Amino acid sequence: MTDFTDDTVAVHDETEKIVAVNINKIYKVRQKDSEKLTEFQALKNINLTVKKEEFLVIVGPSGCGKSTFLDMVAGLAHPTSGEIYMDEKLITGPALDRGIVLQGYALFPWRSIRKNVEFGLEIKKIPRKERTEISQRFIDLVNLHGFEDRYPHELSGGMKQRVAIARALAYDPEVLLMDEPFAAVDAQTRESLQEELLRIWEKTKKTIIFITHSIDEAIFLADRVVVMSADPGEIKETINIELPRPRDGIRASAEFGRLRQKIWQLLQNGHADTEELRQSDNLNDRAV
Ligand SMILES: Nc1ncnc2c1ncn2[C@@H]1O[C@H](COP(=O)(O)OP(=O)(O)OP(=O)(O)O)[C@@H](O)[C@H]1O
Ligand SMILES: [Mg+2]
């Protein structure tokens, strides 16, 4: 890991893409029935290095600070203390080197699919002809050929999600930040989106940070899974997923089951609502 403790010489490891150092986030919150503000520590001492071209997945109970952390990497929020670096440069705000895909699609309803995908390219001032070529390539990549001139309200949830992915990829960010991107789609569409995302990742070699509540989704996608705990939000453990790729059919393997059990147990130990979760648990796709 990059040595940021030495002020004079920072030794940079070429394989590192994003380095978070001692991140703390404290919110001032109003107490119930009181005007008094108290401090709430949303994130505590987060140290995390994401390697170039790595697929990193974060899981953890609701409220443990996953989105807060991702927003900081996106440059949309700032830590109370600590720093996040991308390629050794301190992240101070949003930029087109990081593409963001959020849960709620966030497409522009007044723009056609093609125009949605071209949005970042327009900001980058890419000429029209080139813009059309690039947007077509990414629309094809997410299997939406033929839907270019439709509007978001004319698409299904899974299709909208694919447009959001195409839009984030089209302006060629080095890093993709995805906050529960598949949470709102049905189980079958979700699995095909996961496969599609892996295909795109293998083709484009992006660095991906992906948040999910599904343990199965995490294992299926990740090179590494970061398990967080809440109150305060901390990294509990990081697990290497050494399953072979491509991962078609891997969910039925014994190793997949072992990893599922391990992550489930880690989450169980740090979660107040465990019993409720256990009761609603579905063995094939455990959500946290
Ligand atoms: N602007 C804010 N002011 C005060 N507290 C906040 C603010 N934003 C987030 N929090 C708190 O910080 C904690 C972490 O929130 P965050 O949205 O990062 O959680 P999360 O892990 O993404 O949860 P979920 O899985 O439900 O999306 C929560 O307890 C939340 O209430
Ligand atoms: Mg969140």
Automatic annotation (TrEMBL):
Alphabetical UniProt keywords: ATP-binding, Nucleotide-binding, Transport
Domain of life from the UniProt record: Bacteria
Domain ABC transporter intervals: 21-255
Keyword Transmembrane: no
CDD domains: ABC_NrtD_SsuB_transporters (cd03293)
Molecular function, one GO term: ATP binding
InterPro entries: AAA+_ATPase, ABC_transporter-like_ATP-bd, ABC_transporter-like_CS, ABC_transporter_ATP-bind, P-loop_NTPase
Name the record gives this protein: NitT/TauT family transport system ATP-binding protein
Organism this protein belongs to: Pectinatus haikarae
